[in-house]
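Technical note accompanying the year-one report. For the benefit of new consortium partners, we illustrate the data format agreed upon in the data management plan: each record pairs a sequence with a structure-token string. No post-processing was applied to the example shown here.
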Amino acid sequence: MADFHQNGVVATLHNLRERSLHRVERELASFSATRPITLILPSLFSELEAEALDNIVNHLMEVPYISNIVIGLDQADEEQYRYALKYFSRLPQSHAVLWNDGPRMKAVHNRLGDSALAPQEPGKGRNVWYCIGYVLGARNSSVVALHDCDIVTYSREMLARLVYPVTNPAFPYVFSKGYYPRIADGSLNGRVTRLLVTPLLLSLEKTIGHQPYIDYLKAFRYPLAGEFAMRTHILPDIRIPWDWGLEIGVLSELWRNYSNAAICQVDIADAYDHKHQPLSPEDAKKGLSRMSTDICKAVLRKLATDGVTFSQETLRTLKASYFRTALDLVEIYHNDARMNGLSTDRHKEEQAVELFATNLIEAGNSFLEEPDATPLMPRWNRVLSALPDILDEMQAAVAADMAEYG
């Protein structure tokens, strides 16, 4: 991984193809002796019944440098939690399964709620937030990695590439973001990044002028990637959203707190595929429709905190610019796909653009109507200021659940 360069304002690290996985894992094992690594896996119970997670766990069983694995389990009853404990028991690493729907974790949640510190809605963001709290309470890691549980093309090499930049003590990075080509079954995927985020950022530049934050987001090759790793010490001071804006929200917090020189992205896979969300044009609270709205809100909200003023006129101009830019990109992506022996469905891509344009206006109107509304969960530093013993309570709750039901 010696070859790297500056892509925009964020360091882009190339992959590890020139070095054997065995050698890289040996280095990581050496680094982890003084920088223990924890892996967070936010999971729905339904993912335990899918082939993707089974493959992920089988690969993780062979990883020699991970010290701890924290699994956040959502949408599980008592019988399903028991099953999950048995399912993950094959992991040789020290691991914990947080039963987020169990009575003990609900008691922790209710105590946070009494102090107006509880996440408002269930979802991946809340799951990750509680896993972060558990990691901080365990006090046994220097590096934390996170990835989804629905990655069909998962391999050990993917994890090694992801954690290497923040684990190597010779590197200055505190945060590593994964990127990869979104290609599967001969088709060009990654619709939300290609057809929403990219044209939105280009259109914002046209509408509101140059903004360093937009430059920052544009520097990421795949800003919506759910795979990232970081030094543990940054966790107490970041606020993450509970909604679909999680990935953009994390990048925004890094932008707020750290120099770009401390942030990198790394090529973690030659091919990547996972469970695809439906477009859901008929239901704005589901699928890519909900995701697109939440992402637009997250970007607009962050720009507002940087002093950008939005109005109805600005939003109308932004929508018009976005729509034209996105349609142009549909054609470009189609041609790019054909040149590489891939395919895109231009009709479905334009349908997605039409939906995203509508949701951009909805997101803007929602922001203007409720500028104080925020999906951000509190920083753990704030939580500990109000409830100094809450992390110990969470540790005890998880330990008691695993002892009783395991």
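Partners are asked to follow this layout when depositing records. The two ends are 41 Å apart (CA to CA).
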